[in-house]
Amino acid sequence: MTNHEKKREKKHVHIEDKNQLQEKYIELQILKQQVSSLIEQKHAIDERENELNVTLAALRKLDTVKKGDEMWSSIGSGAFVRSDIKDIEKVLVAIGAGLVVKESVPKSIEILELRLHEFSDINNEVVQQINTLVSRMSKLETELQKIAGKEE
Questions:
Q1: 34: how many CB neighbours lie within 10 A of its CB?
Q2: Is the N or the C terminus of the chain less surrounded, counting Cβ atoms within 10 Å?
Q3: Residue 151 confidence (pLDDT) above 70
Q4: What is the CATH number of domain 3-63+107-151?
Q5: What is the pLDDT of residue 11?
Q6: Which pLDDT tens digit goes with each residue over 59-90?
C-alpha cells in the first residue's frame, strides 16, 4: 500500500470516527432530555402519592370526628373555608373521567389505596426506565471517550 493510499484510508477512518462521534453525542443529548422528562414525571407522581397518603390519613381519622365539629375545608388552590361536619359516614370520591361518587369511608379508603398502588407501580416503571436510560448514557459516554481518544 502506498503512502497516498494509507493517508486516504486514515482520512476515511477519521471521517467515520467523526460521524460516529456526532451520532453518539446526539443520541446522548436525546437520552439526557428523556431522563429529564422522566424525572419530572416521577416528581409529579411522588406529589400525587403524597397527596393520596395525606387524604388516606385524614379518612382513617374521620371516625374520631363528631357530627357538628368545625373544620377547615379545602376549596382548591390552597384556599379553605370554615365548615361544620354533617356526615362522617359518606364521602365524595373521584373515580376518574371527572366522575365523583358518594361512598362509605371504608370503600373510599379502598378506592384510594388502589389508586396509590397504581401510582406506586407507575413510579417503579418510571424508575426502571430512568435506570435503563442512565445505563445507556454511561455506555455512550465510554464510547464517546474512546472515539475522541482515537482522534487525538
A1: 15
A2: C
A3: no
A4: 1.10.287
A5: 54
A6: 999 888 888 888 888 888 889 999 998 888 89
For the record, the C-alpha cell of 93 comes out as: 370520591
Residues 85-140: pLDDT tens digits? 888 889 999 888 989 999 999 999 999 999 999 999 999 999 999 999 999 999 99
CA distance 35 to 68: 50
Q: How far apart are CA 106 and CA 113, in angstroms?
A: 10
d(CA 116, CA 124): 12
Query: Rounded to an integer, what distance in angstroms lies between the CA atom of residue 91 and that of residue 29?
Result: 48
Asked if 104 contacts 89 with a C-beta cutoff of 8 angstroms, the reply is yes
Q: How far is CA 58 from CA 51, 61, 62, 89, 138, in A?
A: 11, 5, 6, 14, 44
Q: Which set of grid coordinates corresponds to residue 23?
A: 451520532
Question: 65 is written with which cell numbers?
Answer: 370526628
Can you give the residue ranges of every domain in the chain?
3-63+107-151
Closest CA to 70 of 58, 82, 53: 82
